[in-house]
Amino acid sequence: MTNSNLLAVPPVVVAGPARDLAPLPWPYAVSSVELTVVVPFQNPGARLQDAVQRLSDALHAQRISFEVIAVAAGSRNGSAGSLGDIAHTRVVTSAHIQDKGAAMHFGFAMARGAWICFADIEGEAEVDAYELVEHFHLAREKNA
């Protein structure tokens, strides 16, 4: 990852590890997708499922191959269970992940995407899925 691939405004999209490893032979090659969306969360309630579903729908509509990695950061309200039916979504829970910084770090480490971004679903503003898609396209065009 280089700082030149970091966008200045949220959502942030950066080059992922799969971008550099995809052309390499096994065992270095990774099964990748175009975009990994890391969603760290603590206790978002119903907002989690709504936000992840909107992200998934927008990415499907743009025909972008993706994965969503939702990482629980000490969540105690059962929010993680609401994501089971959303395609291309992995949910990570661990007693060792207690804050959102650790959740983001863990999600970025698990990412298989050529590009990685994160979405803060517990912030004041709603996540604009199409803004995220637009920033992804801009980052990809800039480094094509």
TrEMBL record:
Which is one Pfam family of this protein?
Glycos_transf_2
Q: Identify the keywords attached in UniProt to this record, alphabetized.
A: Transferase
**Keyword Transferase attached:** yes
Recorded hits in SUPFAM superfamilies, A to Z, give: Nucleotide-diphospho-sugar transferases (SSF53448)
Taxonomic placement: Bacteria, Bacillati, Actinomycetota, Actinomycetes, Micromonosporales
Look up keyword Transferase and say if it applies: yes
Name of protein:
Glycosyl transferase family 2
Biological process, per Gene Ontology: protein N-linked glycosylation
Q: Where is the Glycosyltransferase 2-like domain?
A: 36-121
Any idea which GO molecular function terms this record carries? transferase activity
Organism, as annotated: Pseudosporangium ferrugineum
